[in-house]
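ok trying again, last paste got cut off:
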Amino acid sequence: MNARQAEKARTRQRYLAEAARLFSEKGFHAVSIDALGAAVGVSGPALYRHFASKEAMLAEILLSTSERLLAGMEELCNESGVSDADTLARLIAFHLDFALASREVIRLQDRELATLPAEINRQVRQLQRRYLDGWAELVSRVQQMPIEESRVLMHAVFGILNSTAHNADLAPGDITRNVLSAAAQAAIGVPASPSTGENFTPQPGPHYR
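nice, full thing came through this time. structure:
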């Protein structure tokens, strides 16, 4: 990637970050293209040099986030010499990195997934199902429970981890991380592992904030 391409990529990410913030705060339909442009210091129509429409921005935020979460999970699951229990503990740390940095995206997912065109909505849901199933398969092996039960459990665990979208004002980030990590580990039934240390840093995707 040359310097011009790198700058264009950074500009796109800045636009998407502001779009995620505004869409999550005000609702997708309440945000005009002019308001999006004003948030990044350009005219509304200038955004069309980077995105086909406001809908395309929403689609890119939600689809790319799901893609990168899945890729990050698969990277961790494919590491050799790591036990299933340790992999789950690492996945908790991985998902919390995302959940703490990308509260706007979680709120946006909750509120606006149905706004996506049907085909993009289907793609996002498929990616999310694969992400959940990857966790559920590990839980099923570690706890020796039926996969149907571990899927139900994982929906509850993601509710814990994604609660960051609604608790930003309750405690500093390190306290929130520690509390939610302990709660998720207890729900799954795996102990805290030294291999999840604070320096573990695979990135699940763009942090739209």
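cool. DSSP finds eight helices and no strands in the chain. Confidence is low (pLDDT under 50) at residues 193-209.
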